[in-house]
Amino acid sequence: MINGYCDPRFLSLKEIFNHAVESQFEVGASLAVEHEGNLVVNLWGGHQDALRTSPWQEDTLVNVWSVTKGVTATCIAKLINDGLLDPDAKVSNYWPEYGCNGKENTKVSDFLCHRAGMFGFQEGVPEGSWQDWKKFTERLESQAPIREPGTSQGYHAMTYGWLTGELIRRVDGRSAGQYFKEEIATPLNIDFHIGLQESDFERCADMLMIEMDPDNIKLPGNFMRHIPDFLLPKKLKNFKSALTGGDFHIAFQSRPGDGVDYPNLPDWRMAEIPSANGHGSAKSLAKLYGILSNGCERDGISIMHPDILERSITPYSSGPDTVLFGADIKFGLGYELEKGVSGIGNLSPVFKNKMFGHAGVGGAVAFGDPEKKLGYGFVCNQQHQTRGLYQTHNQLVEKLYSIF
């Protein structure tokens, strides 16, 4: 069931990947690792569909959810590199209509490190086509923030895409998907897409989502709701506050008409949602982060100066995150850095040392590491319950770092 190449040094990774697929914990998946600019692992296996009738191929694409945020952060970093965007400037300098109803002093960096207080829609996620860009951005630009901008960190699960994507459009004129395609993906032959063409549907795996009711989500520590604050240490007090505060429900609100299968419908696939609907392979993500982790250029094509990347992966915010259960998650300028979620189970992905990138709610993770000159991508199509969400990735990364 497993195909591809694995350098002998990394055979232990292949064993983990093989077990995840052959045990049917993963329906289909791919794994790729670049080291010092060389592709040392490129594996794929399993199936693209729930009935296991369509084998996973090397060029199979899958929706990687919030892994898309790291790709979008790379676009933002390139715009900073090119002098078109200043992370310390007010958003209203580039998007004048946004500066109203308490959002006047929001900075670009607030968007990027989840401190804009705009992690959801005040009146619910707009109905209709996901491809109606203006409907989403105009709703966000006119509403009041949920929290005062700049004062707290709350993960902008979906809204990050429309907020940062509109910034890209305002300063460059192109959509985020078009910008990434023309400036990065096509020149560097990276098979990743924010907004799929219909011609790519035939090689796209189904995303097998599970029903997740935010009101009944089972998390380690739910019992802490009933423990008085004065009995809890600071981290657990933050966890309890986030559990009872309701920000998670706002950030992950769903639309009543959307079934669990909506990520596999043409409207979602063809939309450009730079926070959540990027489609790609593990190989494409390992290549992108491999380039970033090895001087930010390849074959004479530069994405940005390394100093700009270093600035982008410097922590701008470190929690507690009011959406993600009070976790001390660190964010740079759009990149996810060290994780601070409870270590119980596999609720959160392993992020440590100089790793920068992003994880997705479907279990996919991609990152780079400039110290070890690594680019890594793991993608899959079976979403798991919270306690097993990042199980395969966590096993792979712990083994990968034991090799170096």
Alpha carbon gyration radius:
20 Å
CATH-level-4 superfamily name of the largest domain: DD-peptidase/beta-lactamase superfamily
Q: Any idea of the CATH topology of the largest domain?
A: Beta-lactamase
List SSEs in N-to-C order. Answer: EHEEEHHHHHEHHHEHEEHEEEH
* Number of continuous helical runs: 12
Strand order of the largest sheet: 1-3-2-11-10-9
How big a fraction of the residues is strand?
Answer: 5-15%
**DSSP strand tally:** 11
Please outline the major beta sheet: 6 strands, antiparallel
- Average pLDDT confidence is 91
Number of domains: 2
- From the 3D coordinates, which CATH architecture of the largest domain would you assign? 3-Layer(aba) Sandwich
Shape by Cα distribution: globular
Structure report:
- This protein has 404 residues and is an alpha+beta fold.
- The chain folds into 2 domains: 86 residues, no CATH class; 212 residues, Beta-lactamase.
- 30% of the residues lie in helices and 12% in strands.
- It contains 12 helices and 11 strands.
- The protein has a 6-stranded antiparallel beta sheet with strand order 1-3-2-11-10-9, sandwiched between helices. A 3-stranded antiparallel beta sheet has the order 4-6-5.
- Helix 1 packs antiparallel against helix 12, helix 2 packs parallel to helix 5 and helix 4 crosses helix 5.
- The radius of gyration is 20 Å and the shape is globular.
